[in-house]
């Protein structure tokens, strides 16, 4: 198959690589990709993990390679970009909407450093109420916190804001 | 070169603290007093071991260190430089919680100081780690406050936990007799004495708010020794257990 590979076509393919823990979000939605370079005979994708101890990093790297090689028919190398670090502000607005619809409250936009107060009154993704409280800053994965909604009486998860 | 030796020494101390505290945290998995706490200690275990891994990778990539997994799981006790605080068994939840409070504020202070380090890998790593640690200190502060205000027995147990952990925690800041000056002069980090003071300034107002009395730090003897590889009897069995699976077949690919 001979087709012209462009940076844009690589980014388009990357939208098909989904996060294994939140399957409605792609690596692009999450803001995990920090660079794409066309090299002789292949493509070099640079990415960053959300949390330092994220156990899915090598799986995601492998997924990027597999999907891109299949869709673009080109050799792909994926490396972790050490110069950049992931912040929740990297997540796109579209991603936040998808998260919300998936039942996980999105991270609030951070202005400066994260502080405890920002975790209060997180809107409930089920009923929209702000009558909520933080139940635990740790949840089912490293990137999630647990909240409780007093209006609808349900526990919900939030993708944590990270500075 | 003594610069590299000093840097290596500091990284091993930091990483070993993270690894061993991470292992201790993981011992709460399945045993937490409530489900949220089970999850919290398990998550913090994962974070700590991730931070240890990042530091061992810096050793490996920048300072000719060994492969991170081998270095973590295949090293004799005499080469570990963790503090006595992290070696201690979990005991009751109050002890674990107070250790977590004192340890994580010490970590937060340390990583905040590394944002200005002259050593680039520290600058990069610290930005990430200090953001993640906010959730650890937030968790610790919330529970210290909650349990100190939950009746007389609860209050007394928290005060007792503080009395039992504070000398151990002060041992985190054991300065290196041979490398401290060079690390400060090279602006790698501000030095243990400075971090110790910042740590006290950070924890004191929180303890006051919880009505807990910090013992007079001039009268306590910090639990030094860990940084010089003189360990408590608790480290050896921990290392044996931690490396048990890895050492079944050290060459296996996971």
Automatic annotation (TrEMBL), chain A:
Residues 9-80 form the MIP18 family-like domain. It holds the Pfam family FeS_assembly_P. Residues 121-160 form the PaaD zinc beta ribbon domain. InterPro entries: Fe-S_Maturation_MIP18 (IPR052339), FSCA_dom_sf (IPR034904), MIP18-like (IPR002744), PaaD-like (IPR011883), Zn_ribbon_PaaD (IPR056572). It comes from the Bacteria. Transmembrane segments: none annotated. This is Phenylacetate-CoA oxygenase subunit PaaJ. It comes from Chitinophaga eiseniae. The lineage of its organism: Bacteria, Pseudomonadati, Bacteroidota, Chitinophagia, Chitinophagales. The gene is paaJ.
TrEMBL record, chain B:
It holds the Pfam family PaaA_PaaC. GO terms for biological process: phenylacetate catabolic process. GO terms for cellular component: cytosol. PANTHER family: 1,2-PHENYLACETYL-COA EPOXIDASE, SUBUNIT C (PTHR30458:SF0), PHENYLACETIC ACID DEGRADATION PROTEIN PAA (PTHR30458). This is Phenylacetate-CoA oxygenase subunit PaaC. It comes from Chitinophaga eiseniae.
